[in-house]
């Protein structure tokens, strides 16, 4: 099945640098004045070497399932200034079928529609049809981009039907989930989106999005603005165990037997890193992939300082501490494993290590993620801490290339992290 090219607003590296680096400079000038001059320099260099290009929406309609011909589906409407009443009118639905959804600083809409397996001029897939009255000078690409978030299928001859006064059918791509507890959301990738961010927004897992959009997500670290994805959303949200408020800051205490089994008795093949405070091993603990830092007993003072601080950190840009174990002359910290290695690996000879070079946009996102994690550690914890070892090997990247700070805590007066931002731009 061939993809459909619809319309989305023009996109350029130059424009994207303007929005992203503006945010970086806001952080730099507000909290770290010296950082501003470094960022300004590297941004000017990066803009000089960027080029302008325009892309359109890319849609692969979802194949029909023999067991599911019709269903209720959701269309994600990116806010473009339309009121709920106007959205209802354009989508031919009642107001009760539209639910607001907060995405960052803006409010978008989820539009519930009946989705049907049908043939649209030779293309078989799941679609929802609505109607639109063409105004003077309007085009298919203009209408689908402004009103339907680039989710309309452009069938052969569609553009010729856009004549002033014509009432035309708009075929919107939708989908039916094969599992009762899920519903499909048609989502158009926007600037600064990542698969992990989309998954969090729509209550699903990155792997679920990848499975349903294999043509577009063969490289999970790359998605492009304007791609139309089908997202299998959990109807009741992702269920997580409820935490006891009195114990929410207390880590899990593991047994030495569990640690030993998880690391295969600390086999050398399980070792993934080493630092001043100990070695790090990968392992499976209670069905979850983890990173276990093994520390000598002489490090107990640092260990417990780190433990007390880290167990109180719950932030998307800081590596999560799951628990610890002690005994046998060693202490062990158990962290959530971050799949994509360190930023250092992606900046220095990435091809030799099996990684693709980072794009300018991804570098800016990583710089912002790291800054947010460090800002949280420094300014928003009850007991303010300072990360005294900020370097690219302590910035880890998840599957969506979002950055998480791996930290060792000490209470000092200041810490400089300009190096991370400079590295992102100078190691290309």
Secondary structure: elements and pairs:
Elements: E1 4-5, H1 13-31, H2 33-48, E2 58-59, E3 70-77, H3 84-91, E4 98-103, E5 106-120, E6 123-133, H4 140-146, E7 167-173, E8 182-188, H5 195-201, H6 206-212, E9 228-234, E10 252-253, H7 256-262, E11 271-275, E12 278-285, E13 288-296, H8 300-310, E14 321-327, E15 330-336, H9 343-347, H10 360-379, E16 386-387, E17 395-397, E18 403-405, E19 409-410, H11 418-426
Domain Protein kinase: 266-428
Organism: Tripterygium wilfordii
Keywords: ATP-binding, Cell membrane, Disulfide bond, Kinase, Membrane, Nucleotide-binding, Serine/threonine-protein kinase, Signal, Transferase, Transmembrane, Transmembrane helix
Question: What report would you give on this structure?
Answer:
- With 428 residues, this protein is α+β, with helices and mostly antiparallel strands.
- It has 3 domains: 58-234, Membrane-bound Lytic Murein Transglycosylase D, Chain A (Roll); 252-336, Phosphorylase Kinase, domain 1 (2-Layer Sandwich), CATH 3.30.200; 341-427, Transferase(Phosphotransferase), domain 1 (Orthogonal Bundle).
- The chain contains 11 helices and 19 strands.
- The chain has helices at residues 13-31, 33-48, 84-91, 140-146, 195-201, 206-212, 256-262, 300-310, 343-347, 360-379, 418-426; strands spanning 4-5, 58-59, 70-77, 98-103, 106-120, 123-133, 167-173, 182-188, 228-234, 252-253, 271-275, 278-285, 288-296, 321-327, 330-336, 386-387, 395-397, 403-405, 409-410.
- The strands form 5 sheets. Strands 3, 4, 5, 6, 7, 8 and 9 form a 7-stranded mixed beta sheet that branches. Strands 10-14-15-13-12-11 form a 6-stranded mixed beta sheet, with helices on both faces.
- The longest helix has 20 residues, at 360-379.
- The radius of gyration is 25 Å and the shape is elongated.
- Mean pLDDT is 76; it is low at 4-25, 27-56, 238-248 and 409-419.
- Pfam families: LysM (PF01476), PK_Tyr_Ser-Thr (PF07714).
- ATP binds at residue 294.
- The chain crosses the membrane at residues 35-54.
- It is found in: Cell membrane.
- It is a single-pass membrane protein.
């Amino acid at each position: 099945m061939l993809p459909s090219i619809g319309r989305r607003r023009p996109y350029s590296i130059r424009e994207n640098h303007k929005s992203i680096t503006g945010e970086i400079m806001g952080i730099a000038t507000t909290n770290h004045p010296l950082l501003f001059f470094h960022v300004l320099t590297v941004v000017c260099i990066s803009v000089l070497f960027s080029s302008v290009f325009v892309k359109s929406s890319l849609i692969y309609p979802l194949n029909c399932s023999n067991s599911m011909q019709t269903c209720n589906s959701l269309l994600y409407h990116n806010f473009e200034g339309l009121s709920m009443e106007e959205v209802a009118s354009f989508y031919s639905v009642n107001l009760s079928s539209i639910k607001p959804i907060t995405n960052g600083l803006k409010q978008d809409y989820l539009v519930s529609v009946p989705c049907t397996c049908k043939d649209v001029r030779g293309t078989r897939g799941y679609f929802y049809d609505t109607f639109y009255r063409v105004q003077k000078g309007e085009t298919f690409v203009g209408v689908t981009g402004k009103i339907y978030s680039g989710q309309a299928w452009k069938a052969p001859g569609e553009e010729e039907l856009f004549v002033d006064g014509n009432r035309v059918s708009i075929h919107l791509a939708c989908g039916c989930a094969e599992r009762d507890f899920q519903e499909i959301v048609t989502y158009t990738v926007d600037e600064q989106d990542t698969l992990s961010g989309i998954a969090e927004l729509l209550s699903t897992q990155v792997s679920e999005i990848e499975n349903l959009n294999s043509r577009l997500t063969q490289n999970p670290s790359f998605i492009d603005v304007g791609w139309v994805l089908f997202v299998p959303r959990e109807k009741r949200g992702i269920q997580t165990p409820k935490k006891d408020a009195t114990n929410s800051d207390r880590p899990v205490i593991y047994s030495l037997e569990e640690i030993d089994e998880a690391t295969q008795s600390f086999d050398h093949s399980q070792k993934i890193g080493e630092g001043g405070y100990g070695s790090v091993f990968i392992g499976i603990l209670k069905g979850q992939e983890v990173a276990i830092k093994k520390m000598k007993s002489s490090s107990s003072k640092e260990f417990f300082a780190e433990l007390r601080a880290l167990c109180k950190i719950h932030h998307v840009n800081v590596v999560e501490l799951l628990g610890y174990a002690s005994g046998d002359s060693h202490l062990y910290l158990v962290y959530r494993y971050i799949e994509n290695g360190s930023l250092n690996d992606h900046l220095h000879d990435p091809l030799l290590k099996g990684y693709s070079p980072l794009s300018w946009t991804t570098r800016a996102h990583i710089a912002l993620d790291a800054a947010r994690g460090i800002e949280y550690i420094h300014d928003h914890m009850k007991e303010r801490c300072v990360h005294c070892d900020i370097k690219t090997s302590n910035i880890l990247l998840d599957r969506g290339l979002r950055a998480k700070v791996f930290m060792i805590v000490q209470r000092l007066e200041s810490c400089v992290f300009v190096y991370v931002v400079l590295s992102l731009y100078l190691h290309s």
